[in-house]
TrEMBL record:
Taxonomic path: Bacteria, Pseudomonadati, Thermodesulfobacteriota, Desulfovibrionia, Desulfovibrionales
Key word Transmembrane helix present: yes
Species of the source: Desulfovibrio sp. U5L
Keyword Cell membrane part of the UniProt annotation: no
Transmembrane region(s): 19-41, 47-70, 82-104, 124-145, 152-171, 183-207, 227-246, 266-287, 294-313, 325-345
Top-level taxon: Bacteria
Protein name according to UniProt: Polysulfide reductase
Length: 362
C-alpha cells in the first residue's frame, strides 16, 4: 500500500454533492423549528424518534466489519470501508442526545415524578449514563478502525460488538421502554440492538449498490445478510408477544395494545409487517434481485424508510401530543438525514483504503 501523499484509487468511492445534504439539513431543521408553533412535545418526540433511527443505524454500520472479521469472513473485501463511514455520525449523535437531555422537561415523563424504579429513572441520571455509554461505544468503534487500519482488530473487534449490544440495549430500555414506566420487557433491549444491526446492514448494502461498478457477488452476500437480519428482527419482535400470550400477562399488554388496536398505530404496524419484517423475505427471495444494484438498493431504501417509521411507531404512542404524523417528524428526519449524508461524504474523502485482514494483531 502506498505511503505517499497521493490518495490511492478505490474500488468503492461515493460520488455525491455535499450541497444536497447540506440543503436537506437546512430545510429539515427549519421545518422542525417551525413545528414548535404546533407543540413542543411533538417536536421533541420527533427528534427523539429520528435519533433512535439514525444512531443505531450508524453504529450498526460501523460494527458490521467487526462482525465479519470476528466470524473469519473474507467476502466483504474493500466494501467494508463503506460500512465504517457510519462513524461519521458519532459527533452528531452525541450532540443530539445532549440536546434531548437539556429538553427533557418538555417531553419526557420522568422529570419531577417518582416511579417504582426510583433513582434509576431520574432524568439526569438516565441521560448521563446514556451519553457516557454512547460515547463509550463510539470510542470502541474508532479504536477498532484504528486497529483495523494496522491489520489488527482481533480483540478490538469483538469488544466493539459486545459494547454495541450492551449500549444499544441500554438505549432501548431507557429511551423507548422507559417512556412507558409501568411496562417492562427484558427482551426489548435485544430487539432494539438487533433492529439497529438490521438498519446498519441495509444501509451498508444501499451504499455498496450506489457505488460505481459494485461486485454482483458482494451484493448477493449483502442481500442474503439483509434477509437474515429481517428474519432475526421479526423473531425478536414476536418473542415480545409470545410470552405475554402464553403466560397470560395482562399487565404487559398496554404497550402492545396501543400499537396493535389503536389507529393510526395499528395501520402503521400492518405496514411495518409488510415492509420491514416479512416483506424483505419475498422481495429479496431471488438471486437476480440481490445481484442487481438498482433492485437491491431500492429494497434496502424501502427497508430503511420502514425502520424510520418503526421508531416513530415505538415512541409516539408513549408520549402526549396526539398521534399526528406531521411537520415535526418530516423535519427531524430530513435534518438528521442531511447530517448523516454530509458526514458520510466527508469521511469518504478522508478515510483511506483498509488493508486486507491477514495475520491480525490485537
Amino acid at each position: 500500500m502506498s505511503t505517499g501523499s497521493a490518495a490511492p484509487a478505490r474500488a468503492f468511492s461515493l460520488q455525491g454533492p455535499d450541497l444536497a445534504f447540506a440543503v436537506t439539513f437546512a430545510l429539515g431543521l427549519a421545518a422542525w423549528l417551525v413545528s414548535f408553533v404546533f407543540g413542543a412535545v411533538a417536536a421533541w418526540r420527533a427528534l427523539l424518534a429520528s435519533f433512535l433511527f439514525f444512531t443505531p443505524l450508524a453504529g450498526g454500520m460501523a460494527v458490521w466489519p467487526a462482525v465479519v472479521q470476528a466470524s473469519k469472513g473474507r467476502w466483504a473485501g474493500d466494501s467494508e470501508r463503506l460500512a465504517l463511514l457510519g462513524l461519521s455520525f458519532a459527533p452528531a449523535s452525541l450532540a443530539i442526545l445532549v440536546v434531548l437531555w437539556l429538553a427533557a422537561d418538555s417531553f419526557a415523563p420522568w422529570p419531577g415524578r417518582t416511579f417504582v424504579q426510583g433513582w434509576w429513572l431520574d432524568a439526569d441520571f438516565l441521560f448521563a449514563r446514556d451519553v457516557l455509554a454512547l460515547a463509550l461505544f463510539w470510542g470502541s468503534a474508532w479504536l477498532y478502525l484504528d486497529r483495523r487500519r494496522r491489520r489488527g482488530g482481533a480483540v478490538a473487534g469483538p469488544a466493539c460488538i459486545i459494547t454495541y449490544a450492551c449500549v444499544f440495549s441500554l438505549l432501548g430500555f431507557d429511551l423507548v421502554m422507559a417512556l412507558t414506566p409501568d411496562w417492562y420487557s427484558s427482551l426489548f433491549g435485544g430487539y432494539f440492538f438487533v433492529s439497529g444491526l438490521y438498519a446498519g446492514v441495509a444501509a451498508w448494502a444501499l451504499l455498496v449498490a450506489r457505488a460505481p461498478d459494485p461486485d454482483p457477488d458482494r451484493l448477493h452476500d449483502l442481500g442474503k445478510l439483509t434477509v437474515a437480519l429481517s428474519l432475526l428482527t421479526t423473531y425478536c419482535l414476536y418473542s415480545q408477544l409470545l410470552p405475554i400470550w402464553y403466560e397470560n400477562l395482562p399487565y404487559e399488554t398496554g404497550f402492545v395494545a396501543r400499537r396493535m388496536h389503536v389507529q393510526p398505530f395499528s395501520g402503521v404496524g400492518a405496514a411495518l409487517c409488510a415492509v420491514v419484517y416479512l416483506g424483505p423475505l419475498l422481495l429479496l427471495l431471488t438471486a437476480r434481485v440481490k445481484r442487481r444494484p438498482d433492485l437491491l438498493g431500492g429494497v434496502c431504501g424501502l427497508i430503511l424508510l420502514g425502520l424510520w417509521l418503526e421508531r416513530w411507531w415505538l415512541v409516539v404512542p408513549s408520549l402526549p401530543g396526539g398521534p399526528v404524523f406531521g411537520l415535526a417528524d418530516v423535519g427531524a428526519g430530513l435534518a438528521l438525514l442531511g447530517l448523516f449524508g454530509f458526514g458520510v461524504l466527508r469521511l469518504d474523502r478522508l478515510l483511506p483504503d483498509l488493508p486486507v485482514p491477514r495475520g491480525e494483531q490485537p
